[in-house]
């Protein structure tokens, strides 16, 4: 009986670690996408400011 409970616990721990790893990877991917978007928007804003400055 105790052996079965230990095996269940190990399996549960393994699944928890697996889910945690997947969630961490998904968050890292989202963060990288957000960083790229911020960099792109920052460049666009700088370009717009530069062209607005030249227009005056």
UniProtKB/TrEMBL annotation:
Keywords linked to the UniProt accession: Coiled coil
Name of the protein this chain belongs to: Uncharacterized protein
Chain segments annotated as coiled-coil in the UniProt record: 17-44
Domain of life: Eukaryota
UniProt keyword Coiled coil present: yes
